[in-house]
Amino acid sequence: MKFIIFTISLAILLTSCGIIKKIAGADIDPVQFDKAREAKMMEVKFLAATSLAKRLNEGNPPENADISFYLSEAFLNKIAMQYDSSEGWLDPATSYKILKTKLTLFNGSAIATLTLLAHNNSYNVDVSLSMDCIVTFKMLKNELEMNLEPFNISPIADAKGLLGGTDEIIENLIKINLANLSKSFPPLKIPLSFTNDFLLEKANINIKDKVNMLVSYNDYPIKYSLKLNEILIFRGKVFVAMSIDKVEVK
Amino acid sequence: MKSYSLIFIFISIIITLFGCKSIDLPTIEQSQKLIDFYQPQINLADRNIDDRTKNLPSGNDFILRLSVNPLNTILKALSNRREDDIKIIFRQSKNVVKEDKSVLGINYTNYINIDTGSFSVNIKAINFSKFDKNIIEGKIEIEGKGAISASGKYIGVPASISPEVQIYLNEPVSFNLEGTDSGYIVLKPRPAKLTLKTKFFFKLLEWKIPWGYDSQLEFADIMKPMAVPIAINTEVQFPKPSKKAGSNQMEQVPYEIQLKNTRLTTIDSKLEFRSDAVFRRK
């Protein structure tokens, strides 16, 4: 009986190790995986850099823009850091926690590497996910957001309970992440304001001279909105060109 | 008993093997070939881009560069607004025009008093021409006309009139510029005397006299400092995933963004506002 229990325990242990090794890359080959990841990154950077070089050769120089913002990589990482330790749900049974986000700006592209911890309640399985995401910038409801589109996912499973469904869960997690993460994951909001206002404050000037006069005007609330013209990603910074869209004086 | 053990070992091996599916990956050689293909082309594009962007600013969390054009677009909306931008109220002013006369040894004085009256004038143009060492220079043009009430005596005969008055001002103005850690550029009017030209067309009985007078206005009195936002939100709601079990909803979490190390300079005829940010959850 002891032998049976020992055998079962060993089998479970081996199975567990097997999953960790397999998903970690034992049967994939970590070198092969890293090379594939590097090649994919290169492809992304190549396409973006050549497109940016073409834009700079053919379009207006960025420094000519009337309103331009330069957002540093450090600034964008400060925004991303606010999402560290955030917890959410990939599906009704699978929760995730963002452990760390690191965003790097290259010429033409921005790549974020996220480390997530996903947990499936049904099977009590933890999966560490390291994901490379292309960062896209888009305007939504008058706000500029960074969205993350995963293109490389490296999962490491650590099964604690039943093992039968582990593979399936991990596969599902990968599929969910690849297909739906951008929907489940919150956009990173850039705190640029496209609607602004200021006040030209009322004044009264009493002129006591040969001709006595009172010169006065009321408060003029001035509201202006900006429109996004262009976003370019450079090494270490993002360039945002804007222009005045509408001005309203009340 | 032994056969049970063998069954368990067999099942365990099956479970172990079952886990051995692999993910399709290119071979190391295929990946290396792609890397070798892309790397020199990325380097070439990087050199081209870096060369063209070496003068772009860096060194702070965010940097705003602003030309005078957007400010003029805003001010144009103010000047285009309508024709009653500024109200001029004339108060009683005695003997604005006065002449002592003597006819056949009889001395008398012709005079005109301004009694009261008001009308509005239009900001015809207000625009900026350039930034220079944290100063923005421009000009303001004001124009308008209306009628007021005046009275006086001509050859001893009293009369009341409603003369037409024209107002005109066209002067250079400038503002000192200051950047604030609250995310504003403050435009502070620089002291300057502006000349408000007033032309009166008096006609009191047979006394017709066009008369002009220049009043001096202090620009810093006319206009108060304006705080123009630099389009950075110092309060922001970050959408964050909900911790609620099974939920894929987002929760809005309020943050405050504190700016520090704010500096304002003028570079290449543009105003440059640079600052660093600290995020604090509220």
What does this structure look like?
- The complex is a heterodimer of chains A (250) and B (282).
- With 250 residues, chain A is an alpha+beta fold.
- Chain A is built from four helices and twelve strands.
- Chain A folds into two domains: 178 residues, no CATH class; 55 residues, no CATH class.
- Chain A is 32% helix and 46% strand.
- In chain A, strands 2-3-4-5-6-7 form a six-stranded antiparallel β-sheet.
- Chain A starts with a helix and ends with a strand.
- The relative contact order of chain A is 0.15.
- Chain B has 282 residues and is of the alpha+beta class.
- In chain B, strand 13 and strand 14 form a beta hairpin.
- Chain B folds into two domains: 166 residues; 50 residues, no CATH class.
- About 5% of the residues of chain B have low confidence.
- In chain B, 21% of the residues lie in helices and 56% in strands.
- In chain B, the strands form two sheets. In chain B, strands 2, 3, 4, 5, 6, 7, 8, 9, 10, 11 and 12 form an eleven-stranded antiparallel β-sheet that branches. A four-stranded antiparallel β-sheet of chain B has the order 1-15-14-13.
- Classes of the chains: A alpha+beta (250), B alpha+beta (282).
- At the A-B interface, helix 1, helix 2, strand 1, helix 3 and strand 2 of A face helix 1, helix 2, strand 1, helix 3 and strand 2 of B.
- Strand 10 of chain A pairs antiparallel with strand 2 of chain B, so a sheet runs across the interface.
Strand residues, percent of chain B: over 45%
Number of helices of chain A: 4
Radius of gyration of chain B: 38 Å
Q: What ranges of chain B have pLDDT less than 50 throughout 5 or more consecutive residues?
A: 8-22
